[in-house]
Design a protein that fits this description.
The protein has eleven helices and eleven strands. It is α/β, with parallel strands linked by helices. The chain has one domain: Alpha-Beta Barrel (TIM Barrel). Strands 1-11-10-9-8-7-6 form a seven-stranded parallel beta sheet. It is globular, with a radius of gyration of 19 Å. The chain starts with 20 loop residues before the first strand and ends with a helix.
């Protein structure tokens, strides 16, 4: 993978580089054409850069029926056959002990992202690069997913094996110069409700996630979807992640979960979702600015401004792609106004 200077590394300790910065969660409502020229991926990168985000995330594009691809298959497909998995369309099945490949997997889009930025002399326009990786619990939950009680997430050995694979991907992203690596774990919203599924200890979950991100010099985040349970909150505050990343616009009750004092005590940054990723309607600059200013009074500058989740879920809604890019542009403009105001 091409390597670039990571300007975030020296600022890791005090997190100042992240406060009131802007970023996104990765996916866009655009399908990959899988042709050699990768026209759609090039378009997604150029359009995302045009929004002016401080930390643009490597675009994640959805696949087609003929070429299935999503946040899980991105990491699982390279493990097919020789490494203990079988991929059947959009489904993944365990066929044996999952083994770690010689080289990190799931980084094709990140590599393309870096090469495009370098070829087009765009690295100087941004504060730093961000990449999202799919976490081991979510990957495991996708394997043999017909029955949630017996899916791969119920097998601690499989989760641990996948964690080692994800850890290698994160290390490679750090070496390549990414300033933020975010571990996406939407399946934890299912696992960590009123009780923890599969009899896992919270300590096991935190240890597993820490084994991926602890020791990385770049900034790290963990993302979960839906409502934040007390167990998820404890995990987020105790784990090694720098950024706490939730859906806040679509689940406003999540704003009441954390207190400024505990975020500061644990030296965390809260990912502030200010635009919807389930409704393609574009929020105005004024609406977003109001949301940011309102939350400054709650959390101070310990926030990084972002969409709720990936925008890829808007695929199929009218003008979804164009509106997604406009959401990002408005998010940036609103945050700049707050900084200057």
């Amino acid at each position: 993978m091409v390597r670039v200077e990571n300007r975030g590394l020296s600022l890791k300790r005090d997190l100042e580089a992240l406060r009131l910065a802007t970023t996104d969660v990765g996916s866009l409502p655009l399908q990959d054409d899988f042709k050699p020229e990768r026209a759609n991926l090039r378009k997604a990168i150029a359009d995302k850069l045009s929004a002016g985000l401080d930390y643009p995330c490597c675009p994640q594009l959805l696949g087609t029926k003929e070429h299935p691809m999503n946040m899980n298959l991105q990491f699982l497909t390279p493990l097919a056959d020789a490494h203990g998995l079988k991929i059947d369309g959009e489904n993944a099945h365990q066929t044996g002990h999952v083994t770690k490949p010689k080289h990190p997997v799931g980084l094709e889009a990140a590599t393309f992202f870096l090469e495009w930025l370098k070829e087009n002399n765009q690295l100087g326009r941004i504060k730093g690069l961000k990449a999202c990786v799919t976490g081991p619990f979510t990957l495991a939950g996708y394997i043999d997913r017909t029955d949630i009680l017996t899916c791969g997430a119920s097998k601690p050995d499989l989760v641990t094996a996948l964690a080692e694979i994800v850890a290698d991907a994160c290390k490679e992203l750090e070496r390549a110069g990414f300033a933020i690596v975010n571990v996406d774990e939407p399946f934890l919203a299912v696992m960590l409700g009123r009780r923890i599924l599969y009899g896992y200890r919270l300590g096991f979950i935190i240890e597993t996630l820490d084994s991926i991100i602890e020791g990385l010099r770049c900034f790290t985040g963990i993302h979960t979807c839906g409502a934040v349970s007390p167990t998820i909150k404890r995990m987020m505050l105790r784990a090694a992640n720098d950024i706490i990343d939730h859906e806040l616009q679509g689940t406003p009750t999540n704003l009441k979960v954390y207190r400024r004092a505990e975020i500061e005590k644990h030296n965390k940054i809260l990912g502030l979702g200010v635009v919807s990723t389930t409704n393609a309607r574009v929020e105005t600059v004024e609406q977003i600015r109001h949301s940011v200013e309102e939350n400054l009074t709650l959390f101070g500058r310990n926030i990084i401004v972002k969409p709720d989740c990936g925008l890829g879920g808007l695929l199929g809604q009218p003008s979804a792609y164009e509106n997604s890019i406009q959401k990002l542009r408005n998010l940036v403009q609103a945050t700049l106004q707050v900084r200057e105001g």
